[in-house]
Design goal:
4 copies of one chain form a homotetramer.
Chain A: E1 2-8, H1 12-15, H2 17-22, H3 27-35, E2 40-46, H4 56-60, E3 64-68, H5 78-89, E4 93-97, H6 104-110, E5 117-129, E6 143-153, E7 163-170, E8 175-184, E9 187-192, H7 205-218
Parallel strand pairs in A: 1-2, 1-3, 3-4, 4-9
Antiparallel strand pairs in A: 5-6, 5-7, 7-8, 8-9
Helix pairs in contact in A: 5-6
């Protein structure tokens, strides 16, 4: 059983009638409902919970984290950002949706600005598959459309992806790398573009399929790495080949390194 | 003319007689001397200068930044780290040497722990070229040795490199990806492993050649990007294809996005 | 159930007493025995069978092909090489072992020389994991040793891997990228270095674990792509956006393109 | 001085009045004229010359080869294909234009089908930059248009690029990775999409800028590798670390390996 946690900012749903009407139970619950089943357990947490719902305990029980945020990026606690990053490095999968391109944990994991151009005009988006038979695209045709979406345009300020899975065409003339994969430490990371809060995108069957596939793809069944940032000293006596210490030294044997 | 700035922590040189003897003018000046010439201007700055020597003005006049730090990683001001990262994204080249794998700007740009195993035993290191005719390896044989070096061992907690240029063999039985390239925004990034402060590594001709080549490789002659993190709104009226606004909206036209 | 086919050249086993003694049932059967079980069906075919054992029918029923060849690379029929390549592009996984770096299908799929340096001296090899928690390394420690192996040394003439999973240390002073992944069309490809025929490498538990893991990793459950090299014409009338034909034409609508 | 050789198939120019009118001196000469100057020497050769104009001597004097072919892909001699591939592996740059996605040398270097979907309808193409400040995009805006072009659509059957530099938007609703970089051996490879023979694409200033930039980018000033496919045996006596031969052997010392 894969344990997915959907993180929702849950701000627009409370402030905008439009969003509340499309997602009466919140975007996070809509996404959780879409992902749940067929070997996936999905529950949602929200930013207003203690520690944004992402305590150490919760992350330890999360195989794949799905993140949607927008208006309150800046209010996310930096300690939670580091905790999420460490969980990814230790093997937790992470899926960032739409405006989460500017979320703190995504920017932290990418090491780049993650900027783009954008336009909110309810235009048509068509996603094209660029990697045939990729597990994230299982069950999908070569292209599918979203009649109403926000435009995100290139250049998209990300590192070169491990694999580009989808590229979007926009009615207004732009393109965008809409599905891209990364590995960060032992964790698989996927960014997926669609999902502006004023359109019913997370009710779309193809979008739901992508997210469900991505949860399966991102899942790493290996035990989580205990100390993903640890840099162990190897004492000379433990060297795998015969070795005699030589030359001047700064550190004592077994000492911690500098950080 | 390529303008290289060598950033030196300059702590060990003042605290350790061994290091002071090997690098009487500081490691940073030794590296600057090695890099200077043949179209490269090189000057050094140190951590104890105001803003660690890396003011906005200085970075604006730096084509390639070379970074050596170790003992005082934690004392580097986070504002300088962001400033350096933004300079890289805008097109400045960056070369991180040896213990700079744990420097704040390198970790910031990678988005990973950058950890490794290590041993200070004065053992032999042999660097093997893995990318023939790579510009960073110009003038070098397929392998070269450093008789006394600190060991760094895999697994090295970095993202998959754009290109792996060198891999090291260590006498004690380890291996390490010692020369790896990345692109972050418009900036070229190179990590190069050798350079423990208690050995005369930066006096080595092959090591000097690599760093000099890397400065040339990392140099991007294009004008620096003015606002490397900007995410511009494209008003509907400016769309490149005829477009009519539809559906509900959250933003007003031309409004700034959320961060 | 994953269906693995082990392809064995089966020449050394018949010509060399040393090899025959280590692998009395042939290297291919030793590998098949190691891979079989836990959801994997494994059978072996050999070069001396009609069409080298790799008929269209056989490939259609193969989820993952494991290839070991050495002495008779040049005798492999080019039609079989193309057939194997097409099967990979259509989604079949492929694992190339040791001297298969110079096999025709591996070189065909890489597009590079795949050359290296080598030495047959029964020296110690130690493989280091470079990608923690990679599924191909499941159940393995950070490093493991083979006391007797042939040396393969860098530079290794491969394209930059999608991911580098293992790097080898050799007693005689060389290093080598020993486990590397690629995607070719819809097919996952893995190269794994160990396995010189005069040593008992394929009886080693860690080596067997790697190959078994790699079979699982390479398996793509999606239906095979029917025509993996097809380049379909999209008639103007079928365009997804309203489109009017303009300008001079070379092709008639629906015509096949040139190859 | 960079020596560029433009290879033209030169068939359509002789068979089609439309093409002859747009390119009265042949497409190859139009491209050569566009590339020449500012440190680049450019000359054209054509398929109808002996050895298709690509003798060993000619390739030895070519720093960067630019390839345009379409109708006669199948007529290119396989020996010339191997010769071109070896030149690339030894360090020659190579740029493949438009329908050269299906040329023998490009497919040979990629190891994949290189297929795509297509439509000849004179539609609008807009190329977007995906890698800001990339040297191949020097002097170009974030996007530029070609009013009349053939459509090429994803999925494009290429290996994941080292870097994606351009992505195209098409009026009929498709997208395409239009500028992609690779390294094959010591050679830099660039594929650039535009250039259907019935439109005046190679007279376009932006297209000319891209090709000129790409020639500079692909140029490797290092001396060509003499035997790019050679796999040298390292005799035990030449090992860089003390090594004693052990165990059974198949090869005599210094013997050639099998191919």
């Amino acid at each position: 059983m894969i344990r997915a946690t959907i993180w929702g900012e849950n701000v627009h749903e409370k402030e905008s009638d439009i969003v509340a009407e499309i997602y009466p139970n919140g975007m996070h619950n809509c996404i959780a409902d879409a992902v749940r089943g067929d070997g996936i357990e999905a529950t949602a947490v929200t930013m207003d919970q203690p520690e944004h719902g992402l305590t150490e305990a919760r992350l330890a029980e999360t195989d794949v984290l799905v993140w949607w945020g927008h208006k309150a990026h800046g209010e996310v606690d930096d300690r939670v950002v580091e905790r999420v990053s460490e969980a990814v490095w230790s093997g937790m999968g992470a899926i960032f949706l739409h405006s989460a391109h500017f979320s703190k944990p995504f920017k932290r994991l990418m090491g780049t600005p993650c900027n783009l151009s954008w336009r909110e005009a309810g235009e048509r988006e068509r996603l094209w598959l660029t990697s045939r038979n990729h597990p994230i695209a299982a069950g999908l045709p070569d292209s599918f459309e979203l009649e109403y979406e926000e435009m995100y345009g290139e250049p998209f300020g990300i590192p070169e992806p491990q694999e580009t899975v989808f590229i979007s065409w926009f009615q207004g003339g732009e393109v965008f790398r809409s599905g891209v994969t990364y590995k960060r430490g032992a964790g698989n990371v996927f960014y997926f573009r669609p999902g502006h809060e004023t359109y019913p995108t997370y009710h779309d069957a193809n979008v739901q399929t992508v997210i469900r596939n991505a949860v399966r793809w991102a899942y790493n069944p290996a035990a989580r790495i205990a100390q993903p940032t640890h840099a162990p000293n190897v004492p000379v006596g433990n060297a795998l080949e015969p070795l005699e210490e030589r030359g001047p030294k700064l550190h004592k044997s077994g000492e911690e390194g500098y950080r």
